[in-house]
Amino acid sequence: xxxxxxxxxxxxxxxxxxxxxxxxxxxxxxxxxxxxxxxxxxxxxxxxxxxxxxxxxxxxxxxxxxxxxxxxxxxxxxxxxxxxxxxxxxxxxxxxxxxxxxxxxxxxxxxxxxxxxxxxxxxxxxxxxxxxxxxxxxxxxxxxxxxxxxxxxxxxxxxxxxxxxxxxxxxxxxxxxxxxxxxxxxxxxxxxxxxxxxxxxxxxxxxxxxxxxxxxxxxxxxxxxxxxxxxxxxxxxxx
Length: 239
Hints:
By secondary structure, the protein is mainly beta. Among the domains are: about 1-40, no CATH class; about 160-239, Jelly Rolls, CATH 2.60.120. Helices cover about 0% and strands about 25% of the residues. The protein contains 1 helix and 14 strands, in the order E-E-E-E-E-E-E-E-E-E-H-E-E-E-E. It has one helix at about 200-205, and strands at about 5-10, 15-20, 20-25, 30-35, 40, 50, 160-165, 170, 180-185, 190-195, 205, 210-215, 225, 230-239. The strands form 5 sheets. A 4-stranded antiparallel beta sheet has the order 7-14-9-12, with no helix packed on it. The radius of gyration is 39 Å and the shape is elongated.
């Protein structure tokens, strides 16, 4: 038996050479390990040799309740996890240390058990679905202490005035932060509401002469006014 790498098939007639690795390099104990290069392709079709430009295609079969433990990166940095293809992520007992959670999408329930001293909790860009608090059990010793409540300050006073007649008209568009007041200086009653139809005087809110109405909104857009007869001097002011 040859003791070097590779074997010539049918050496007497110059047959093909079969690639092998002879190991260990000892005639008494060494054996030939055949070297095989894998290929892939459809049955009965063309085949491709596995190499850098043609890597072996692999499909990962996910068993039930399959999970991937995620730890720190090799160099101690953070690991970015990207979820695509309709796969959902379920997280329980999740601790965030030394970083932040950038985005929480809809359908998420968050429970806060302890808030350390010096930590500020705020809501930035409240979504359309809003935030509901159903129960607070034990934040700090069974009680909740509020030290500071920050109320948005006004950015200056904004006002407007217009004459409203017996034809429904929208109130002047203005932008406010903490709400605004609508006041009727007369001489006639003015009906205000969210419609510009003739039904405004039947279903709108009546502002008698010198009556006023405070609305907690960012502006009067979508509010209409109408007098049954005559005109009314309507003023708007807010911050």
